[in-house]
Amino acid sequence: MKLKRMLAAGIAFLLTIGTLAGCGNSSGGGTGNGQQSGGDEVVTLKWVTIGNGMPDNYDSWVAKVNDYVGEKIGVNIEMEVIPWGSWDDRRNIIISTNEPYDIIFGIGKNYVPDITLGAYCDITDMIGENMPGLNEMMPEKYWTAVKVDGRIYGVPTYKDNAISNYAIWDKELVEEYSLDIASLVELDSLTETFEKLKADKNDYPVYVKNDGIYYIFDVYDQIGGGTQILGVRYDDKDARVCFTLEEPDIYSALETFHEWYEKGIINPDAATLNEARVYNMWRVAQGWESAAVTSWGPQMGKDVVVQKVGDTILSSETVRGSLNMISTNSKYPEKCLQFLDLVNTDTKLRDMFYYGEEGVDFEYTDDGKAHKLNQDWEMAGYTQGTFFTVTQVDTDVFNQWEEIKALNDQAVDSAVFGFTFDTSQVSDKLSNCNEIWLRYRSEVMTGVQDPAKAVPQIKEELMKAGWQDVVDEAQRQLDEYMANKE
After folding, report:
1. CATH T-level topology, domain 2-158+322-386
2. How confident is the model at residue 486 (pLDDT cuts 50, 70, 90)?
3. What span, in angstroms and rounded, lies between the C-alpha atoms of 425 and 255?
4. Are strands 40-51 and 103-106 parallel, antiparallel or unpaired?
5. Which of 103, 217, 346, 379 suits 483 as a labelling partner, its CA being 20 to 30 A distant?
6. C-alpha dihedral over 413, 343, 325, 380, to 10 degrees?
7. How far is CA 220 from CA 197, 369, 414, 416, in A?
8. Which CA distances in Å does 228 have to 169, 195, 222, 314, 436?
9. What's the rounded Cα separation, in Å, for the pair 196 and 176?
10. What is the pLDDT of residue 37?
11. For residue 31, what pLDDT is reported?
């Protein structure tokens, strides 16, 4: 443990040097390869993101992208698309070793800890000048959601920023068994149906990988703590910070998962799987209703039907579900922001990232829609930029982007929207507590462990690691925030 603390301190020291030097430090970090083009410098920016890995046609695709953005803003781009299963490890290496990059995708659980390390550039004062298009397009409250101590370190993706969960069913099974999926929303209501499907189809109705059925935590605002076990329920006006595993709704869900595992409803290797399979009889995902036709069905190769689960919720955490940050050591932070602004506002470029290479992955129809030539594009569209400048696909019967905007507009704000837990006073304890949870998470969230035994055991270990101090500090800050808010 002592060695671990020494290593962490060394990393933090190195990153702090980068922070003190300021964004645009020319002495290190970033790719920043300059080229001369007609007398004007074209800078190369490295963007690290997540997806299914590097596209097979990456070279021809990126050449077209660079021709376009090079002429527009004097930028070329180099991508590293990390596969889903490798993301956490690879991302952590990049951040902890100060590996050169310019832009990196991220989500809320890493955002505040990485800022504390000094990994990201403070872009607050650069947004207005370098991102005029996105700044005008995006609601101001989304910028508020990503502020930490009043400063902005990440560009939120303007998309389905409020979280709406949908149960996705194989349509063929729904029709065969005449299922009333509107009545099958609560987890415990599904057991009898799943038992029947398991017996008849000799397959697992709930097929998951090692993160399990994680959507159950979406009703808890994680307040920037970066862990599923700490949060405030979105509709709790008393703003009580809690140990989520002990809350009645979460604990009941864990009991159901364990019952499903014991009955063979969940695949037995779930806790050790890094990648999910393509086909699911049932699963829950964040999205919108028409995604059944545009995304979920095509991805699975089946017709699906969907049923909304719970409220649509807007919190700082949901806005932070897709962010792009600038390395504190990038030589060209302004160019990074100009590039991201163009990705968000220029439909031609947006389509190139969202759909792939024109003529290879997609083509435009006579009426100006996008026709996919394959389902092979490896990059994840939600990580790149807004949905609202993406060309509709030709299979859309109505504008799905307008549907998403409507969901954003009708969302219920978290009771603690805008609050971010400053973890600096308890960072070691919080990190140790999260490590304890991560040791148990796979087996708890896939039903392998009985929560009656696992939750008290986790709680005992957490308390020894300083859990109560973490909760007390979070509650103290939140109480102060709520008092000033009134």
Report:
1. D-Maltodextrin-Binding Protein; domain 2 (3.40.190)
2. low
3. 34
4. parallel
5. 217
6. 80
7. 31, 38, 9, 10
8. 26, 29, 7, 17, 12
9. 12
10. 39
11. 54
